[in-house]
Amino acid sequence: MRVSKDSFLRGQESIIRNTQISTLFRKIGISEKAASGGPRILKAARRNRLLPPEIVIDHQSNTTSIRIWKVDAVTMLTRDLEDDIEIFIVNYVNHHNQFKFSDLYRSTNGKYGSESRIRNRLRKLIKDNVIVSYGNGKSRVYGIKKTEEQKQVERIMAIKKLEDTIIK
């Protein structure tokens, strides 16, 4: 790739190596407009709740590799979990992004036992860096632990959305 990761994911610019071949491919319907691949990959990953793509650019060997995940983020998180309560909590946070403990406990309908049992499993997930907590006391909310790459992709998606809104 001849552009940065951010430019690729935002669809800002495209630096084509051979414009004649690019034009030919576009005319016969094999390729689309330049700089549209990155945003489309991100939208598909987000729509299907997949992990963001991993992009590795090696400038020395002049290669780029993009790993597009076929597994959703929850499957990756729950593969090492053996406890039904922990799997339930991870699935719950995946569907609600952020939650309060009281909402989580209410949604169990008593299926997983006492409040303290569920709270202990939640603490274990926090200790294992699967879930993070924000705030204190009754205002405390919990969310999924995100990697720096996931945070970067979310920022890029937010900027792209703003750009699209302003342009329209």
Strand content: 5-15%
The assigned structural class equals: mainly alpha
> In which range does the helix fraction lie?
40-55%
Strand element count: 5
How much is the average pLDDT? 84
Task: Work out the radius of gyration.
Answer: 21 Å
Uncertain residue segments: none
Q: Tell me about the largest β-sheet.
A: 3 strands, antiparallel
Classify the oligomer.
single chain
Question: How does the SSE layout of this entry go?
Answer:
Elements: H1 5-10, H2 19-27, H3 37-47, E1 54-58, E2 63-67, H4 73-78, H5 84-96, E3 98-99, H6 101-108, H7 115-127, E4 131-134, E5 141-144, H8 148-167
Antiparallel strand pairs: 1-2, 3-5, 4-5
